[in-house]
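Example protein
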Amino acid sequence: MAKAWAKFPYPDKKYQHTAATLKKAWDRLHKGDAEPFPKNEALVDAWIAFHAGDFQKAAELGLKAGAEGTSVANKAQAIYANYLEEGEKRKLELFQEVAGRAEAQQAKEPKNANAFYWQAYALGRYAQGISVVKALTQGIGGQVKAALEATIKLAPRHADAHIALGSYHAEVIDKVGAMIGGLTYGAKKDLALKNFQAALKLAPESAIARIEYANGLALLEGKKSLKEAEKLYAEAAACEPLDAMERLDVELARSELED
């Protein structure tokens, strides 16, 4: 982690927490990942850095805290790689690191839902980076699906896992068609829609749930779903971000609407 990471471009005082204000806002901030509030003070500091948008500091503090800091380190690195890392090769390397750490974490903490979720997220984004079809032939699709299903089994209210599983079904069907998608990869349109709707129910304030739902509809239904997808994007752009990650989601929605 020697190389300095790009800075979060929208710093805002309201994303900066103390331990007390973080604890108060925790449930709303973590509806997506169902992460429990940390017992360790060093991890509270790591999460404070994460929510403020200092992703590098959050990752470094998480890694320094040992095994229990893996989730915050993985989340900080994955979100940074997805939104702010501009070098394509470096981005893929960051995702691979996260996936590797998360897989090692599963062996030590088999009941930790986010050990499975961050593996799935990192592999899913890595797959999009190298091309979904290529990733499917490498067996990455099956790993993503299994890890997401494990996440939901351990934490049924994990909204982000529902979003990602919806995206998995939609991406696979888009790339290989409904028949092969269903037979070979267990991808089904009705399951995609069910997952997206479950995510919105669990995290009604989520911009990313709307963005991925809109993207999924576009993949599954094409032009037919344009109106619905635009409505979801407009809702996402109007969401009130409570931290740096949510702000990146809202800015993404705004830029899509401008295109």
